[in-house]
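Q: I'm teaching a short session on how sequence maps to structure, and I want students to see two examples side by side rather than one. Could you give me a first protein with its sequence written out and its structure tokens following it? Keep the formatting plain so it prints cleanly on a handout.
A: Of course. Example one:
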Amino acid sequence: MSENSELRRHAQPFQVPLIGKSVSQVATSFGGFLATCAGMYVLNETSFWLALVLAPLAAGFLVRIFIIQHDCGHGSFFRGRRANDALGLACSLLTLTPYASWRRQHAGHHRVWNDLDRRESGADIYSACLTAAEYRDMSPSRRWWYRTTRHPFIANILLPPLVFLCLYRVPFDAPAAWRRERRAVYTTDIALAAMFGGLGLLLGFDAVATVHLPVMVLASIFGVWLFAIQHRGEDVLWARHDDWDAASASLKGSTFLRLPAVLQWFTGNIGYHHVHHLNPRIPNYRLQECHEALPPLRKVPGMSLRDGLRAVRFILWDEDLGRMVTVRQVDMRGTGA
């Protein structure tokens, strides 16, 4: 048995869900989110700006709910498929993310991440990149488009709310053959319309908008950044398919984001992304336990919060240098600067 296969075998015991921790995480995440939103509704009667103070806290709880949905999509939060899917659907009504469609898209990401020869079969702009050579071979207009769509302000500030509020309302990234997933997108829309329509009739549509829109905007920005940098950074490795294997890609192609304890709690330990990619069936609340138990995982270099903020600039893979680079670095090399 290879060293990488052995590591994956040693990680298997940690994929067993702990029902007490799962239930506790649901209670604290949903309870915290609903309580904070209720507080925002109360404060909104006095002042919108006063209510807005609680929006980052509500967004933090919403990110945690998305992590639960993410675990459910991997079948890791509960032992049974039905329990995972039922909870994942409940999460989707708060995250505005159609569960079935996102689950299948995300499964594609896990099959091809950091594989240079399979980038077009399940990746998105946050978990895929061009090589430096491919970028240099583009026309000036296409290079401009690539730079612009992946600029940190566009990709990490403007685009995330658009994706969650608008693009997820249609099956924009689901192939025509995904009939079940495409129908599920519209079913989610109907449920959302009923839920927010009922809230609007009960509490007022202005109140619903002033509470939930800021929360969704903040949660989408932070959540997308959180997932985007899990395969970014100067030392992240990409490989050609013949040299790619899942375990090596987990240790070298996924990051270990070290966060302060409070942020680690709100992000459901997803910073231990190298462990998650090694075995996606491990529940989020056991990722740290697995990391600390297996020496090869502890050797993965950690990324600080500051490094994570810088990582969004690394959007090209330089095969000659064997590392991620920024557009500016490639342009400077091209001019001989």
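Q: Perfect. Now a second example for contrast.
A: Example two:
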Amino acid sequence: MPAVPVLEVRALTGMGEVRAGDDLAALLVAALPCPPADGDVLAVSSKVWSKAEGLTRPAAERDAAVAEQSRRTVAARRTTRGLAAIVESAAGPVMAAAGVDASNTPAGTVLLLPADPDEAARRLRARLRELTGVRLAVVLTDTAGRPWRVGQTDFALGCAGLRVGDDLRGGVDAEGRPLEVTVRALADEVAAAADLVKGKVLRVPAALVRGLAAEVGEEDGPGAASLLRAPGEDWFRLGHVEAVRAALGAAHLAPPPVAPGPVGERVRRAVAVALAAGGGGCTALPHGREVRLAGGDGVALGMLVQRLLAALWAEDLRGVLRRDGDVVVVSAETARQR
């Protein structure tokens, strides 16, 4: 059985505020809690890299910055403060607001992520080696939420010198059963462990992780970009609301609010989505929980009914049908009524 590694994670304190033009590597070395050793990993917040590189924008231009840093929208909701969006960022990962951040930044500014996080990690690693003479790895970290889970955790935005993934496929578990899908995101695990001793509230932007020398190599390696799932392999490339709207030709409509609102409001949104690509000569008139659909021929009316049922589902409502002469009446039920 292989030896179980013993990890030591120590915060780098006392760095002070990082400003544009600062030698970030020199600041990190000065803050090290102990002399560095071959095989150590430095987990560094991408925020201080962005500060040192001057990747700032006026806070008034935040929305424009988010748009510029977004490659595609996964999900979006309206809030009282504006639009909240989960997007594929220019830096690579899918995350909120493309990683444009206003926390722990100079007043009136927001920070952008590095355009190429892995290249940033490589540059920082090279400078650290120049200053220390030892073989370190660098994990450039950021914070993101996760599907199906409440709360945020740090992950590897960029990486250099550390094996980013531990592919166990083809091996066997402790009982001898074959492993077919298990690939550990090692760089992400390092980032999350380091965040236990650093973070926004503590104002500690970096941590030293010791005990993973076997995972640290001479070469920079493929970087954290190798952990990104290609859109074609992503089962969750759109939120459920966005997927329904895209299928119904309604992607151009304004995103729904974070708080769904009263049933009548949700029904009206569903009608707008159902009619977004045209009604085929049919009408759909909402009134409270009910929608009355009429007109057109039988095929067009049936199509509009099905579009409305799908749009109601995206609003967490279920449509119940009944006939009233030539009119189809769809009544919306909430989850509690099912």
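Q: What should students look for in example two?
A: Point them to this: The chain has two domains: 8-55+114-233, 240-337. Also worth mentioning: The CA atoms of residues 141 and 157 lie 5 Å apart.
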